[in-house]
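Help needed: design a sequence for this.
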């Protein structure tokens, strides 16, 4: 039922927006656009993140304003730019599809009178979008032995010189902090407004919710699993390619670009990665890609 609801635009007030509008399975449950559109056809604030392995997160939305998946989904329902529908008011349009009557009775023993059960069903479906069957996973488990020399170099750089794994902790890569996995990493990295790298983006991230100066420009560490499927990158979709992302970090993030960032959590100095090393990092990150049929 959750899968069916995930794709149903009747959940939104205007009947035109569904979860799948922004989270497309064939695109790693992202959308490959810089900013998707709201229910009025205007750009949303941030780039669409993947939903894969969401069940293993401890923080939701790029600004961490929800602590549970249920709350995150509820926020989409009540957001006037998205579904714009009351969580406590069930869409009668849904029940015009007789299939739902059976599904609701099977799942909850009754036909729902509000969207609470709808949100639970969608959450249950999203929680199944997990998979650890990438080339990386199969090699690390010893099921395959086909990493190229470039991919091996990229992995070692990821874990070492390039410092990627200091935020993108293996194996989840989504900032969920080991060994207890009860909190989520959040960082100030100084993402620019445009790919020309001339001006700091004005989205303050965590600060909008928590109002602490050190949170200005802070965002949750995103997953890099299936990253080859989910371009463009960063919270504002500013970079079209992984090569651009690696170069941004190689230069020292926003601080390295010359932005005034009092609380940047990245080292300001350059990583001094060679072109060969940067290419190897990209090659490794592509080994974290799973085919849709493997997982879904």
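Sure. Designed sequence:
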């Amino acid at each position: 039922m959750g899968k069916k609801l995930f794709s149903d635009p009747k959940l939104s007030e205007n009947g035109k927006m569904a979860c799948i509008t922004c989270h497309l399975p064939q695109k790693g449950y992202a959308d490959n656009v810089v900013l998707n559109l709201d229910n009025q056809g205007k750009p949303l604030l941030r780039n669409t993140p993947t939903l894969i392995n969401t069940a293993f997160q401890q923080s939701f939305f790029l600004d961490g304003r929800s602590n549970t998946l249920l709350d995150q989904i509820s926020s989409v329902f009540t957001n006037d730019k998205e579904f714009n529908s009351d969580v406590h008011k069930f869409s009668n349009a849904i029940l015009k599809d007789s299939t739902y009557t059976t599904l609701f009775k099977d799942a909850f023993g009754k036909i729902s009178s509000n969207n609470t059960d709808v949100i639970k069903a969608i959450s249950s479906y999203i929680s199944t979008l997990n998979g650890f069957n990438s080339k990386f996973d199969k090699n690390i488990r010893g099921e395959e032995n086909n990493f190229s020399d470039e991919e091996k170099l990229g992995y070692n750089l990821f874990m070492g010189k390039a410092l990627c794994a200091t935020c993108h902790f293996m194996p989840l890569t989504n900032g969920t902090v080991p060994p207890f996995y009860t909190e989520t990493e959040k960082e100030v990295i100084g993402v620019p407004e445009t790919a020309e790298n001339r001006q700091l983006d004005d989205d303050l991230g965590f600060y909008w919710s928590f109002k602490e100066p050190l949170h200005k420009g802070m965002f949750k560490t995103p997953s890099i699993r299936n990253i080859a499927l989910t371009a463009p990158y960063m919270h504002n979709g500013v970079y079209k390619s992984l090569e651009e992302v690696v170069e941004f970090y190689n230069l020292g993030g926003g601080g390295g670009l010359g932005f005034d960032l009092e609380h940047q959590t990245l080292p300001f100095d350059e990583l001094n990665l060679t072109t060969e090393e940067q290419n190897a990092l990209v090659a490794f990150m592509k080994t974290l890609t799973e085919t849709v049929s493997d997982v879904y």
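The mean pLDDT is 93.
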